């Protein structure tokens, strides 16, 4: 049976500016906060101030790569086969015991 995970406070990166900057400038994230990058298979952590956890997910919402505690200033981090990327607070992967093959459900933050 698949484990399912819901993030009720995920923001969707909209437009080129938000997709480029993402979480840059944020110094903290709540345990269940994150940012979703649709139609994306690579990110960078240039100019970030804190580590993040990163999930690469495919079209069927399955995790194809999970990177805990990704440090700032990485120019490129990608995953073949990923359709979307979710950037999360550090420790989120461990707290939820997430692993490759798990299925995730993401809900966008209400405006």
Provide a brief overview of the structure.
With 111 residues, this protein is mainly beta. The protein has one domain: Protein of unknown function DUF192 (Jelly Rolls, Sandwich). Helices cover 10% and strands 39% of the residues.
Question: In words, what does this structure look like?
Answer:
The chain is mostly beta strands. The chain has one domain (4-108): Jelly Rolls (Sandwich), CATH 2.60.120.1140. The chain is built from two helices and eight strands. It has helices at residues 15-21, 92-95, and strands spanning 4-12, 33-37, 42-43, 52-57, 63-70, 77-78, 84-88, 103-108. The chain has a six-stranded mixed beta sheet with strand order 5-4-7-2-1-8. Strands 3-6 form a two-stranded antiparallel sheet. The radius of gyration is 13 Å and the shape is globular. The N and C termini lie far apart (33 Å).
User: What is the string of SSEs from the N terminus onward?
Assistant: EHEEEEEEHE
Going across the biggest sheet, name each strand in turn: 5-4-7-2-1-8
Give helix % range. under 10%
What's the pLDDT, averaged over the residues?
87
């Amino acid at each position: 049976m698949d484990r399912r995970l819901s993030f009720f406070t995920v923001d969707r990166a909209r437009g080129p500016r938000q997709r480029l900057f993402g979480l840059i400038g944020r110094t903290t994230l709540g345990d269940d906060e994150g940012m979703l990058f649709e139609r994306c298979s690579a990110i960078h952590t240039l100019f970030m101030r804190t580590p993040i956890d990163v999930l690469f997910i495919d079209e069927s919402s399955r995790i194809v790569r999970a990177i805990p505690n990704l440090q700032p200033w990485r120019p490129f981090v990608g995953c073949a086969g990923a359709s979307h990327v979710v950037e999360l607070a550090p420790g989120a992967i461990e707290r939820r015991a997430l692993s490759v093959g798990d299925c995730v459900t993401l809900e966008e933050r209400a405006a």
